[in-house]
Automatic annotation (TrEMBL):
Keywords assigned: ATP-binding, Hydrolase, Nucleotide-binding
Protein name in UniProt: 5-oxoprolinase subunit PxpB
NCBIfam families membership: 5-oxoprolinase subunit PxpB
Carboxyltransferase domain ranges (all copies): 3-204
GO molecular function, one term: 5-oxoprolinase (ATP-hydrolyzing) activity
Enzyme Commission number(s) of this protein: 3.5.2.9
Listed PANTHER family: 5-OXOPROLINASE SUBUNIT B (PTHR34698:SF2)
Xref: InterPro entries: CT_C_D (IPR003833), Cyclophilin-like_dom_sf (IPR029000), PxpB (IPR010016)
Length: 235
């Protein structure tokens, strides 16, 4: 790890900790996030963690650029990765089925695993939340098994149903809301991922760990899932 500080605005610095996406980054990112919060205190307006960076937005009334950089250097002194047990755990039920996951069969054929093998491989791994973005509650999770890696669709869809589970390259994610999208869909979850009522809004945060639990259609419906078959719509 060779941390670098980059200027992204008059009141914002980017702390780059890594150059490559890797699951091993997250314990360091979590530890750095907490150290930055502690170092900046009330001068911190916002902190946005991502795959390899921390975006630090600070109060210009309380700090100038030099002081902000000094706080970042202070935060990095003696930095140690966060313990794995500090991460929140989520078990997310998923109905893996071609009627709601139009790329499931194609992925099974392309990978050589078959549909059952895709479901087994995808649900066997515990994924890390790398970052939130694109839509409220949308979490970029990874990394999927290399055999499941799939490029984004050449033509994105106008509407992807809420709860749809997809794969893009070696990342996987659930669409929390109805939205456009170009990920390869393999199933659907009944879990509500974004809610304005509770604190935090999003079910998960960067650093959380996620396991997908295959369920049958009857259980999916019992949990409130929408089992309407996916209907193709391109942009």
């Amino acid at each position: 790890m060779k941390p670098r500080i980059e200027v992204v605005g008059v009141d914002s610095l980017l702390l780059r900790l890594f150059d490559q996406i890797d699951e091993g980054n997250m314990p360091w990112m979590l530890a750095a996030s907490q150290r930055v919060r502690d170092a900046f205190g009330t001068a911190l307006i916002d902190l946005v963690p991502s795959y390899t960076t921390l975006l630090v937005h600070y109060d210009l009334i309380q700090l100038d650029d030099l002081q902000a950089r000094q706080h970042l250097h202070q935060a990095l002194e003696g930095l140690q990765p966060a313990a794995a047990e500090t991460a929140r755990q989520h078990a997310i039920p998923v109905w893996y089925d071609a009627s709601v996951g139009p790329e499931l069969r194609a992925l099974g054929k392309r990978s050589g695993l078959g549909v059952a093998g895709v479901i087994e491989q995808h649900s066997a791994h515990i994924y890390q939340v790398f970052a939130l973005g694109f839509a409220p509650g949308f979490a970029f999770l990874g990394l999927v098994d290399e055999r499941l890696a799939s490029p984004r669709l050449a033509t994105p869809r106008k509407q992807v149903p809420a709860g749809s589970l997809g794969i893009a390259d070696r990342q996987t994610a659930i669409y929390p809301l109805v939205s456009p999208g170009g990920w390869n869909l393999i199933g659907r979850s009944p879990v509500r991922l974004f809610d304005r009522e509770p604190d935090g809004y999003s079910l998960w945060q960067p650093g959380d760990r996620v396991r997908f639990v295959p369920i049958e259609r009857a259980e999916f419906i019992r949990l409130g899932g929408n089992d309407s078959p996916f209907q193709e719509t391109a942009v």
